[in-house]
Design goal:
about 230 residues, RRM_euk-type, nucleus, four-stranded antiparallel sheet, DNA-binding, mRNA processing, alpha+beta, Alpha-Beta Plaits, RNA-binding
Length: about 230
DNA sequence: GTTGAGCGTT
């Protein structure tokens, strides 16, 4: 819904759309309306919102009936402090269906070169496809990156404690890629198992390896005991 | 609850 059109937007042709950028996320059409109406006949005010949360996306469209009035609003309102922020007012460049606009007014430059070779309902497919792609591209700019990027960062730090995975790793492990602990493959040699025969369970913990390595280097008499222990073993 | 380049209908 827009500010003035209770039943859908008023006819968009023959109006001059202004794009109002940099308004706060709390500014509503009602806040903008008195401001812009001072300079002419405002046909409609529309603030795009998040479809889920309903939050403002931080800009608005103000449509004037006459170009001179729209132009005047640009001159007077561009750079004006509204709700603590300097708004930017300019003529809109694109319409709801990505039609080109000149001076805020839609120019009928609809893609006519796509021909009629499409036999089956090309209109709906093209439109929906465009709008969906556009929607997700735009939404992923500032607000939506919160939950997702935050999560991704945490996940990244968690799994990068041991080593970094190559794209090949992900491809090989496929859906299992979320549990890296399983693939922590140290690849023990037979020698490893022989040296710690008494703890010989299946897979010795990693920290044992780190602890024992220096010990072996420090004890100079260790090899002697090992020799005694190993010799009569057969 | 956070945000900040851009172009559109509940």
């Amino acid at each position: 819904m827009s500010r003035f059109g209770r039943s859908g937007p008023p006819p968009i042709r023959d109006t001059y759309s202004l794009l109002v950028l940099n308004i706060t996320f709390r500014t509503t059409a009602d806040d903008l309306s008195p401001l812009f109406e001072k300079y002419g006949e405002v046909v409609d005010i529309y603030i795009p919102r998040d479809r889920r949360t309903g939050d403002s996306r931080g800009f608005a469209f103000v449509r004037y009936k006459y170009e001179e009035e729209a132009q005047k609003a640009v001159d007077r309102l561009d750079g004006k402090l509204v709700d603590g922020r300097e708004i930017m007012v300019q003529f809109a460049k694109y319409g709801p269906n990505a039609e080109r606009i000149q001076k805020g007014r839609i120019m009928e430059t609809v893609p006519r070169s796509r021909g009629r070779s499409r036999s089956r309902s090309p209109r709906r497919g093209y439109r929906d496809d465009y709008r969906d792609r556009d929607y997700y591209r735009k939404r992923s700019r500032s607000r939506d990156r919160y939950g997702r990027d935050r999560y991704r960062e945490r996940d990244y730090h968690r799994r990068s404690r041991s080593r970094s995975y190559t794209p090949d790793d992900y491809r090989r492990r496929g859906r299992d890629s979320r549990s890296p602990s399983r693939s922590r493959s140290h690849s023990y040699t037979p020698d490893d198992y022989r040296k710690r025969g008494k703890h010989s369970s299946s897979a010795p913990p990693v920290h044992r390896l780190r602890k024992e390595a220096p010990v072996r280097r420090l004890r100079k008499e260790a090899p002697v005991r090992r020799l005694h222990a190993e010799a009569p073993d057969k």
